[in-house]
């Protein structure tokens, strides 16, 4: 769940002092300079990682233009593997050229910039109390330390939700631009024309399709990650251990990786709802059913055993029986 759009959240506890100098919020140009640097850094990371997310999106919508290949497991059993990232990327280059790998990039860059600005303004308006930034250890009173985690997580949740609401329209535009590869459409071209097209056909609601599972996934991720990290740091890491501070500094990162796997289905459903029944081949039968709601989409994927479709770029097994290969 850590993306270029929300990379500033991870350092939220360290950016607070930048918004206040000599007791006057915003009295220095340093916060502006820092935000500009984060915007530029976020744009660079977004551009570099965009081909990965592009391939991931096409896999999520179920587009498999290349045939599976026969491979063997570590136990010697023959299975069918779907193409990995590099094979898929080469296919996109053959069809659209190298620039084709960056289809839908501009709305993602815009989303990253807006996310940084929103987070900065919210943190400036609602700063985390000073005691919440203290390192929690098992020497603290358990109730006090738990309250610290709850206050800090609640603050991060507000920032994350407001940021998601502000950037979700650009996420929808980006997903639809990328999904056009499936049917070779040119319906969504240019940021402003995309905005006009969605507003004309679907109204304001069209910009927020899929936002519920997206927000739910991020909120669940945030709470699970922070609470698990708190429990591990409090009960599993002994203060007498010489490397305790170093271990605690990595706990949240490791928990983030683990929890992101569990919350991945929410992100998948959000992306599928963004393209569902919007006039693109990727969101219409026979490529995809027309879903009545995100819960309907979730149930369909669950029945098909596809709730984690697109979560891996390599060693993707074809979802068919291959007993004939044995």
Automatic annotation (TrEMBL):
Keywords: Apoptosis, Membrane, Methylation, Mitochondrion, Mitochondrion outer membrane, Repeat, Transmembrane, Transmembrane helix, Transport. InterPro entries: MCP_dom_sf (IPR023395), MCP_transmembrane (IPR018108). Pfam families: Mito_carr. Signal peptide: none annotated. It comes from the Eukaryota. Solcar repeats lie at residues 34-129, 147-235. Coiled coil: none annotated. It is a multi-pass membrane protein. GO terms for biological process: apoptotic process; positive regulation of apoptotic process. GO terms for cellular component: mitochondrial outer membrane. It is found in: Mitochondrion outer membrane. Residues 1-26 are annotated as: Disordered. Interacts with PSEN1. Protein insertase that mediates insertion of transmembrane proteins into the mitochondrial outer membrane. Catalyzes insertion of proteins with alpha-helical transmembrane regions, such as signal-anchored, tail-anchored and multi-pass membrane proteins. Does not mediate insertion of beta-barrel transmembrane proteins. May play a role in apoptosis. Belongs to the mitochondrial carrier (TC 2.A.29) family. This is Mitochondrial carrier homolog 1.
């Amino acid at each position: 769940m850590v993306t270029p759009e929300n990379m500033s959240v991870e350092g939220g506890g360290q950016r607070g002092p930048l918004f206040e100098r000599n007791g006057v919020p915003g009295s220095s140009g340093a916060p502006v300079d820092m935000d500009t640097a984060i915007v530029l850094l976020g744009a660079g990371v977004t551009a570099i990682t965009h081909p990965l997310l592009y391939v991931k999106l096409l896999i999520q919508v179920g587009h498999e233009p290349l045939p599976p290949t026969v491979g063997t497991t570590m136990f010697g059993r023959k299975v069918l593997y779907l193409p990995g990232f590099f094979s898929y990327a080469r296919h996109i280059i053959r069809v659209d050229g190298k620039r084709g790998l960056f289809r839908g990039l501009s709305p993602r860059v815009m989303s990253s910039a807006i996310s940084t600005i929103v987070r900065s303004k919210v943190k400036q308006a609602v700063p985390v109390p000073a005691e919440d930034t203290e390192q929690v250890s098992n020497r603290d009173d358990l109730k006090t330390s738990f309250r610290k985690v709850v206050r800090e997580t609640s603050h991060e949740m507000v920032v994350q939700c407001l940021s998601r609401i502000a950037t979700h329209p650009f996420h929808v535009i980006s997903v639809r631009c990328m999904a056009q590869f499936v049917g070779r459409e040119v319906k969504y071209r240019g940021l402003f024309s995309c905005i006009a097209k969605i507003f004309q056909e679907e109204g304001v609601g069209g910009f927020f399709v899929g936002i519920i599972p997206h927000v739910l996934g991020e909120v669940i991720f945030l709470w699970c990650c922070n609470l698990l990290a708190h429990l591990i740091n409090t009960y599993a890491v002994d203060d007498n251990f010489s490397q305790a501070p170093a271990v605690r500094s990595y706990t949240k990162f490791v928990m983030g990786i683990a929890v992101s796997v569990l919350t991945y289905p929410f992100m998948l459903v959000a992306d599928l709802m963004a393209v569902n029944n919007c006039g693109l081949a990727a969101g219409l039968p026979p490529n995809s059913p027309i879903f009545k709601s995100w819960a309907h989409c979730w149930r369909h994927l669950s029945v098909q055993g596809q709730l984690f479709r697109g979560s891996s770029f390599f060693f993707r097994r074809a979802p068919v029986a291959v007993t004939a290969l044995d």
